[in-house]
Amino acid sequence: MSTCLITGGAGNLARGVCPLLAGRFDRLVLFDQMPIERLAAQAEFQSGDLTDATRLEALFAEYRPDAVVHLASLLSGSSERDRVRAWHVNATGTFLLLETALRHDVRTFLFTSTVAAFGGKLPDPLTDDAPQWPDGLYGVTKVACERLGVYYHHRHGLDFRCLRLPIIISPFAPPGAASAFASQAFIEAARNGRFTFRVRAETRLALIYFQDAVRAMASLLLAPAERLTQRVYNIHGMTATPRDIAGAVVRRLPKADLQFEPDPSVANLLASWPGAIDDSRARADWNWEPQFDLERTADQMLEEFQHSA
């Protein structure tokens, strides 16, 4: 029986990728501290702490996963509020998971990273091998885990694959992340008729719609190993400014009251992230191609939100 273990199984990305993997694995095991209200087809839930090595060992011994999709982490805002816990969960937790995967002969290990792993003066568009000097602890932990995974691949033969995601626009976005403004603009405008942007209106940002993000994750996980020329891949969905996002909202909700009141800490962090990304290697190696531009994303966001409301 083929099994895929998904950490952060109660989260935003896990709920999207499960249907895409259900037909490729006999069993999906969703691992998280948070409960899950509804399970996807072929899925089981197991509770536990990513930093508990004994619990991880028991989990792998019981399910013997063929693949691991590692989505669990503290996001940017939570990482800044509790640096000790952020390092423990994001970095130490990933190290323990890699060690356990290696001991149990896991075939493929997919790690989700982020454009927050970059910072400072960046090339435009951002390349896969651009220098990484993140401005937030969340990004720092992601860089550390990228390097760990590549080490486990080269030194120990683990088939580590990493996807760097842009800012995700999603109807399920957690509000605590700095990047969540792009999603909350649609959600709050639809729910309350208003939204205040805490970022600068003209900041160029690399974005991707939720459905494109989970499709990219599934595609990279399932790509033939012989086609991959590197371990870490950038992907890109679209480039837009907060003003562009506001315009897309207002074209669909003309009465929405949208304001800009930048918070310097949030605005400066987002300004350090890339505005456009070179994902040519992902396109060449495993046929990556986004399906959603901003206009289609806006239509889908409001449809998804209204459906879930």
CATH topology of the largest domain: Rossmann fold
H/E series: EHEEHEHHEHEEHEEHEEHEHHH
Write out the CATH superfamily name of the largest domain: NAD(P)-binding Rossmann-like Domain
Class of the largest domain in CATH? Alpha Beta
User: What is the terminal separation in angstroms?
Assistant: 37 Å
Describe the model.
The chain has helices at about 10-20, 55-65, 75-80, 85-105, 135-155, 180-190, 210-220, 240-250, 265-270, 280-285, 295-309, and strands at about 5, 25-30, 45, 65-70, 110-115, 160-165, 165-170, 195, 205-210, 230-235, 240, 255-260. The chain is an alpha/beta fold. The protein folds into two domains: about 5-165 and about 205-235, NAD(P)-binding Rossmann-like Domain (Rossmann fold); about 170-205 and about 240-275 and about 290-309, UDP-galactose 4-epimerase, domain 1, CATH 3.90.25. Strands 3-2-1-4-5-6-10 form a seven-stranded parallel sheet, sandwiched between helices. Strands 7-9-11 form a three-stranded mixed sheet. Helix 6 crosses helix 11 (about 295-309). It is globular and about 55 Å long. The mean pLDDT is about 95.
